[in-house]
Specification:
- The complex is a heterodimer of chains A (114) and B (114).
- With 114 residues, chain A is mostly beta strands.
- In chain A, a hairpin with a 4-residue loop joins strand 8 and strand 9.
- Helices cover 0% and strands 57% of the residues of chain B.
- In chain B, the strands form two sheets. In chain B, strands 2, 4, 5, 6, 9, 10 and 11 form a seven-stranded mixed beta sheet that branches. In chain B, strands 1-3-8-7 form a four-stranded antiparallel beta sheet, with no helix packed on it.
- With 114 residues, chain B is mainly beta.
- The chains are: A mainly beta (114), B mainly beta (114).
- Chains A and B meet through strand 5 and strand 6 of A and strand 4, strand 5, strand 9 and strand 10 of B.
Chain lengths: 114, 114
């Protein structure tokens, strides 16, 4: 079964600085998708960024980028120029191309200090 | 654009009472629909998913059930709630066909069983 591990329960960053959140996953499949979701205090899950495993190029969405290392099964999220609004719980998630299920890690709580 | 709504946002129910959480999606046809639960301090757990009207798959055996009476309507129910049913419930959707499509979440419903 696929598993997703986020080894950092909590992280903090100064406003305008850069922070990297870690995620590793375990799978025997070659075709899959990886996601980072943000859950602010409102609790709604918001998609931050998505990566297709067949793409070598790392995904980027404005201040958010990933470092996807397929061989190492690593999928970290980098947040540049951190803003107070980035404070939230961040979840890494995995989805096989042959399965409906989205498997989540346990999350990393990010605090942004002014 | 597609939107997803679920209600009620907050619910306090006594043990043994019934439950009905509703979710609707607008702006798309034949979506895949999901119910997730998030217990305190944990990631999300997939409860049910549906690929079409009347087609429900259960991921976790429990006293909850789901129904899809219309294409864009998904209902989570229970005949008799347990204390352990307390949590945050999220409805979600993804476009058809399923492979790799991003899953988008509703605003969530807080359920407290007392």
């Amino acid at each position: 079964a696929q598993t997703v591990t986020q080894s950092q329960p909590e992280m903090s960053v100064q406003e305008a600085e850069t922070v990297t959140l870690s995620c590793t996953y375990d799978t025997s499949e070659s075709d899959y998708y990886l996601f980072w979701y943000k859950q602010p205090p409102s609790r709604q899950m918001i998609l931050v960024i998505r990566q297709e495993a067949y793409k070598q190029q790392n995904a980027t969405e404005n201040r958010f980028s990933v470092n996807f290392q397929k061989a190492a099964k690593s999928f970290s999220l980098k947040i540049s120029d951190s803003q107070l609004g980035d404070a939230a719980m961040y979840f890494c998630a995995y989805r096989s191309s042959s399965n409906y299920k989205l498997t989540f890690g346990k999350g990393t709580l990010l605090t942004v200090n002014p | 654009s597609q939107t997803i709504h679920q209600w009620p946002a907050t619910l306090v129910q006594p043990v043994g009472s019934p439950l009905s959480l509703e979710c609707t999606v607008e702006g798309t046809s034949n979506p895949n629909l999901y119910w997730y639960r998030q217990a305190a301090g944990r990631g999300l757990q997939l409860l049910f998913y549906s690929v079409g009207i009347g087609q429900i798959s259960s991921e976790v055996p429990q006293n909850l059930s789901a129904s899809r009476p219309q294409d864009r309507q998904f209902i989570l129910s229970s005949k008799k709630l347990l204390l352990s049913d307390s949590g945050f419930y999220l409805c979600a959707w993804s476009a058809f066909p399923n492979s790799g499509n991003t899953i988008y979440f509703g605003e969530g419903s807080w359920l407290t069983v007392v």
